[in-house]
Design brief:
Elements: E1 2-3, E2 6-7, H1 12-15, E3 18-21, H2 37-42, H3 44-50, E4 54-57, E5 61-62, E6 74-78, H4 85-97, E7 101-106, H5 116-121, E8 135-136, E9 157-160, E10 165-168, H6 183-198, E11 203-206, H7 248-259, E12 266-269, H8 275-280, E13 291-292, H9 296-299, H10 304-317, E14 325-327, H11 336-340, H12 342-354, E15 358-362, H13 382-386, H14 430-434, H15 440-453, H16 455-458, E16 461-468, E17 471-478, E18 481-488, E19 494-496, E20 505-509, E21 523-525, E22 530-534
Parallel strand pairs: 3-4, 3-15, 4-7, 7-11, 11-12, 12-13, 14-15
Antiparallel strand pairs: 1-2, 5-6, 8-10, 9-10, 16-17, 17-18, 18-22, 19-21, 20-22
Helix pairs in contact: 6-7, 12-15
The chain binds 1-deoxynojirimycin.
């Protein structure tokens, strides 16, 4: 049955598209230069016009903001910077009223060091929460227990004088890791999930899900022979003892059980792993994450051969019945426009929105925002502050404010925002691009509309036709519907022949100007162009 452009027998998160909102940077309504939930509420028309199905909201919980909300001091309340719990209730309601879902960010690996659980745990070796975090006695020389490092540089251990012990933090020292081998921690966090599910949220994106367990014997991580000086220090060692540990998938399954107490919910897991290891997080019986994030477009070269191989490898490794997903950008990585160039980013958008698998679209990518330019005195990202100057390492570049129009501060705020606007914001913004049929925003709207209108594009099968040189061609098929997508990942003209596309009609091209063209035996594709061909 098709309702609202969707087959009601297919879970919404398979046919739908997820849009990531970074709350610091979406819309400010209080005049403090920082976004807030009332701001999101005031911009829902943008999401409707864009045509996305779900919002994933990066953390809005009470937090000292050492890591911009990924250091949570209260999992069951909203930080006053962003509004109130009732603002969040209103957001859930308003999204639902528009047929959209809300996915919250769930941050289970660590809390803030100001969380009451940690304050109690750190107070003595005998308090009721003494074993809620990863505490360890010093090494014989009094130093840290082993060589584990922080993802943000430096050693991964911090000394607590009150306990005469060290605690482990995979990220900042202000983000102590919880002890997930303690059933009381598991139970408390399950209750956090239930708290939000009862309020009506539609699921969770689970932060660093592959980090939850660490080696119970605290063995050293081995050195990484491939480390190069332009890489963060943490890559000196391989995270063999601190990530992707035996047993972690059972914890994921535990989350899933709780989520399944409520109908129709979604669990996305954040993990940067090989396709093979990533696929393990679906669970053998699909009882793990619905969507373990696939970050390979962020991790691997944007080459036709690589992307073609990724599609096929993914399809080979997916457990039977599992559903793929693709990501082009997020708040932790350089912007796609800056990685690939403005013209090629349009081709990448065409891939993301015609690929088999749920796409996640990062706010600002739909208007072609490029990396921010952050003067040294405005750097906010703790990762960059701890290890300055590495290439694309400052995450502020992807976190600059959304650009809505050409009014002062791009309509984001009435004051200078917490991070600078991207130069050129007077023309790279929603209002200007909405009126321009050739803009990045219009391309996104058209791609999303096409995906929604055709099950071959949303839920259909995929077959790679060509992946060589700069040419990537693949077919999507469902029932009688068939599309061929042909992408030029380079800047030179390609002349080719794709027999499977012959006789089809171009319904969208990334550079524009080819709608309605019938494909013959030969297909010409300009540099940085891509076409969607309908063969229905
Ligand atoms: C992944 C998040 O996306 C990132 O922003 C954060 O710093 C780390 N997890 C730690 O929570």
């Amino acid at each position: 049955m098709i309702a609202n452009g969707r087959d009601a027998s297919v879970p919404w998160w398979r046919s739908g598209v997820v849009y990531q909102i970074y709350p610091w940077s979406f819309q400010d309504t209080t005049g403090d230069g920082v976004g807030d939930i009332p701001g999101i509420l005031s911009r829902l028309d943008h999401l409707v016009a864009l045509g996305v199905d779900a919002v994933w909201l990066s953390p809005v919980y009470v937090s000292p903001m050492a890591d911009f909300g990924y250091d949570v001091a209260d999992y069951c309340d909203v930080d006053p910077r962003f509004g109130t719990l009732s603002d969040l209730d209103r957001l859930i309601e308003a999204l639902h009223a528009r047929g959209m879902k809300l996915i919250l960010d769930f941050v289970p690996n660590h809390t803030s060091d100001r969380h009451p659980w940690f304050l109690e745990s750190a107070s003595s070796r005998t308090n009721p929460k003494a074993d809620w975090y990863i505490w360890h006695d010093p090494a014989p020389d009094g130093g840290p227990p082993n060589n584990w490092r922080s993802m943000f540089g430096g050693i991964g251990w911090e000394w607590s004088a009150a306990r005469g012990q060290w605690y482990y933090h995979a990220f900042l020292k202000e983000q102590p890791d919880l002890n997930w081998r303690n059933p009381a921690v598991v139970a408390a966090m399950h209750d956090v999930l239930r708290f939000w599910l009862k309020r009506g949220v539609d699921g969770f994106r689970v932060d660093v899900i592959w980090h939850l367990l660490k080696d119970p014997d605290f063995r050293d991580n081995p050195p990484n022979p491939d480390w190069t000086p332009d890489e963060p220090e943490v890559r000196h060692i391989l995270q063999i003892m601190t990530c992707d540990q035996p047993g972690v998938i059972d914890l994921v399954k535990g989350f899933r059980k709780v989520i399944d107490e409520f109908p129709d919910k979604l669990m996305i897991g954040e993990l940067y792993l090989t396709i093979e290891r990533m696929c393990a997080y679906y669970g053998e019986d699909l009882d793990g994450a619905h969507l373990p994030f696939n970050f390979h477009l962020l991790m691997d070269p944007w080459k036709a051969e690589t992307v073609g191989w990724l599609i096929e490898e993914y399809e080979r490794r997916l457990p039977p019945g599992a559903w793929p997903n693709w990501v082009l950008g997020n708040h932790d990585n350089a912007r796609v426009v800056s990685r690939l160039g403005a013209a090629q980013a349009r081709v990448a958008a065409m891939f993301l929105l015609t690929a088999r698998g749920t796409p996640t679209l990062f706010q600002g990518d739909e208007i072609g925002l490029s990396n921010g330019v952050i003067p040294p005195d405005r750097i906010r990202d703790p990762q960059e502050k701890n290890e300055p100057g590495l290439p694309d390492h400052n995450r502020d570049i992807a976190r600059t404010p959304m650009q809505w129009d050409a009014s002062p501060f791009a309509g984001f705020s009435t004051v200078e925002p917490w991070l600078p606007l991207v130069p050129g914001w007077e023309s790279v913004n929603v209002a200007v691009e909405a009126a321009d049929p050739a803009s990045m925003l219009t391309l996104h709207r058209r791609l999303l509309k096409l995906r929604r209108a055709h099950e071959a594009l949303s839920i259909g099968d995929v077959r790679v036709l060509v992946a060589a040189g700069d040419l990537l061609a693949f077919e999507r098929r469902h029932g009688d519907e068939r599309f061929v997508i042909v992408l030029n990942l380079g800047s030179d003209l390609i002349e080719t022949s794709i027999p499977e596309a012959s006789g089809g009609q171009i319904v969208l091209s990334s550079k524009g100007g080819r709608d309605g063209e019938i494909v013959g035996a030969r297909l010409m594709l300009a540099g940085d162009d891509g076409v969607v061909i309908s063969l229905a």
